[in-house]
Amino acid sequence: MSGPAVAAVDGRALGGLLRVVVTRPANLAAAKAAVDQVVDAVDVAASRFRDDSELSNLNAKPEREVIVSALLGKLIAAALRGARLTGGAVDPTVGSALKRSAGSPAGRPSSSTRHRDRFEYHEVSSSISAPPQKP
Q1: Model pTM score
Q2: Around Cβ 129, how many Cβ atoms within 10 Å?
Q3: Per DSSP, what are the bridge partners of residue 128?
Q4: Tens digits of per-residue pLDDT, 65-91?
Q5: Residues 6 or more apart from 130 whose CB is under 8 A from it?
Q6: Residue 76 contacts by C-beta under 8 Å, 6 or more apart in sequence?
Q7: How far apart are CA 73 and CA 56, in angstroms?
Q8: Sign, CA torsion 83/85/86/87
Q9: Taking a C-beta distance cutoff of 8 angstroms, is the pair 5, 25 a contact?
Q10: What is the DSSP letter of 30?
């Protein structure tokens, strides 16, 4: 007796590895394309290693409140929820500390970012609030 047929493909995404597994091998290419589309959208929205990402643009703005895309808003809300649920063990605001400690993967230079002490995501308006930049 054999198990269900599966097919898989490995790849790289967001500085790590990914694997797409399907139970209908004929759908593997479509599934991989769908995953690639989501990963590419997340990369454009939230990469700290791309100067053209929405996150890099957000970090470069001096305003206290900035309107963001729905995707970046969801990603930030999920990251902040992770921080709350773990009591701060997962912290999405440590980008500057990582840069200072050479936290760029694969030696890639990271974009210019500012450390923000606290972010607050307002789902109704899709805006991000942060305290003013410290001198």
Answers
A1: 0.67
A2: 15
A3: 66, 121
A4: 778 888 998 998 898 889 889 988 887
A5: 64, 65, 116, 117, 118, 119, 120
A6: 68, 92, 119, 121, 128
A7: 14
A8: positive
A9: yes
A10: H
